[in-house]
Specification:
binds NADPH dihydro-nicotinamide-adenine-dinucleotide phosphate, 447 residues, five-stranded mixed beta sheet, binds (2Z)-2-iminopentanedioic acid
């Protein structure tokens, strides 16, 4: 006879067979949450997980725009409104050529649990486009964002759905999107987060995902009476999350050895210090260059083309680039080299087999929905400040971020501690997130 988990996954596969990333995200949740549901009468037999894997609404739309040479371009826009049981849909927009239904549904599904973990009143959603921002001029980015928002504006609002950034969507894109929303609606509201400071943004929002990922690593290390001071850290990615994860590691006395992009990784055996990181930030955020250009200023470093940094010996690994960037063989290599802690800044960067390898070795391993929740949590704080029409100081927001990350860690301990004392952060995060959303769904009835 099939187990409850297998039967559930077969059903989800039947309906979503063409969506491998979504099925992967659902499997990871089902493996830990179904045994919990079976043991708890209030959830059993109510098809709550089946309701959670079906988006409340999934939109696709045409985005036409004119490039600098006068050619008409056509992209596809999406917004997945996954679950609004505990608050308005909330989650980022991703602009990347690989964007499709599967990727956005996995991200939206993860977001539901992540947002619940923050304890703030936010449902889950995700959106974006297969538009590739690489190599586009600022004017092309503006025309694309304006066209994208000329449809999306009908479906979002400060009490309905509040998008933000993700891969390929940063401060520049949020500005253009906000400008068009404001024009079409004729109202100035907190409909997007990650806004500029002078027009409704929050201090610490740009830093929050990376900082939060490192705060979470600190909490995990503390359970072993360890900290970041003097540790060797390997980071993937060189975008928003990776940059601020690196900054916080440096502030806490760790040595950052690598950064990467989709072309390969750089390894600086002397460590990427604050000056070198400032160079990277300018290279990536202003010049919009490639990480290999690091060597133009620091020729002693190595650029390893086409590879991910997991082969570099380290104490702590922070995957901060994209989904499925860390495979089982990478996990085994990290373990062999003595890695004791993995805190995910990206969403689902480790494959299921890689996660199982970390757990089997009983190292400290946190899934993105727990460890990278600082970004959306600070988006929630931006929404609060917008509603209050008031801004908190940098220290006030940072303190709240720290406290939220520490509470998420506590929730993982509460729901994820196994009989032998090992903290299964995947189980903890999934069950803690599930309970909050499921209770709200039960209270609201079959809608
Ligand atoms: P950015 O666009 O700022 O940076 C993305 C980085 O990841 C770049 O270095 C990029 O390299 C690399 N990357 C992207 N796609 C791939 C790929 N297919 N293979 C290898 N490298 C890739 O995005 P963010 O830093 O904002 O996002 C990084 C991760 O963090 C994502 O998984 C995102 O979902 C997650 N996240 C982001 C949050 C936020 O607040 N921004 C919040 C929580 C999670 P290249 O330039 O070559 O594409
Ligand atoms: O994956 C994520 O949590 C984000 N991209 C941030 C979402 C948000 O609404 O700030």
């Amino acid at each position: 006879m099939k187990s409850n988990i297998e039967a559930f996954l077969d059903l989800v596969k039947e309906r979503n067979g063409q969506e491998p990333e979504f099925l992967q995200a659902v499997q990871e949740v089902a493996e830990t949450v179904i045994p919990y549901i079976v043991e708890h009468d209030i959830y059993y037999g109510r098809n709550i997980l089946l309701r959670m894997v079906e988006p409340e609404r999934a939109l696709t739309f045409r985005v036409c725009w004119v490039d600098d040479s006068g050619e008409i371009q056509v992209n596809r826009g999406y917004r997945i409104q996954m679950n609004s049981a505990i608050g308005p849909f909330k989650g980022g927009l991703r602009f990347h050529p690989t964007v499709n239904m599967s990727i956005l549904k996995f991200l939206a599904f993860e977001q539901v649990f992540k947002n619940a973990l923050t304890t703030l009143p936010m449902g889950g959603g995700k959106g974006g486009s297969d538009f590739d921002p690489k190599g586009k001029s600022d004017d092309e980015i503006m025309r694309f964002c304006h066209s994208f928002m000329s449809e999306l504006f009908r479906h979002i609002g400060p009490n309905t759905d509040v998008p933000a950034g993700d891969i390929g969507v940063g401060a520049r894109e949020i500005g253009f999107l906000f400008g068009m929303y404001k024009k079409l609606r004729n109202e100035f509201t907190g409909v997007l987060t990650g806004k500029g400071l002078s027009w409704g943004g929050s201090l610490i929002r740009p830093e929050a995902t990376g900082y939060g990922t490192v705060y979470f690593a600190e909490s995990m290390l503390k359970t072993k009476e360890e900290d970041l001071n003097g540790k060797d850290v390997v980071i993937s990615g060189s975008g928003n999350v990776a940059q601020y994860a690196a900054e916080k590691c440096l502030q806490l006395g760790a040595k950052v050895l690598t950064l990467s992009d989709s072309s390969g990784y750089i390894y600086d055996s002397e460590g990427i210090d604050a000056d070198k990181l400032a160079y990277v930030m300018n290279l990536k955020n202003v010049k919009r260059g490639r990480i290999s250009e690091y060597l133009e200023n620091y020729p002693h470093a190595k650029f390893v083309k086409g590879k991910t940094p997991w082969e570099v010996k380290c104490d702590i690994a922070l995957p901060c680039a994209t989904q499925n960037e860390l495979h089982e063989a990478d996990a085994k290599m990290l373990l062999k080299n003595g890695c004791i802690c993995v805190s995910e800044g990206a969403n689902m960067p480790s494959t299921i087999d890689a996660v199982h390898a970390f757990q089997k070795a009983k190292i400290l391993y946190a899934p993105g929905k727990a460890s990278n929740a600082g970004g959306v949590a600070t988006s929630g704080l931006e929404m609060t400040q917008n509603s209050l029409r008031f801004n908190w100081t940098r220290d006030e927001v940072d303190l709240k971020l720290k406290s939220i990350m520490s509470n998420i860690h506590d929730a993982c301990i509460e729901f994820g501690t196994e009989e032998d004392g090992y903290i299964n952060y995947v189980k903890g995060a999934n069950i803690a997130g599930f309970v909050k959303v499921a209770d709200a769904m039960l209270a609201q009835g079959i809608v």
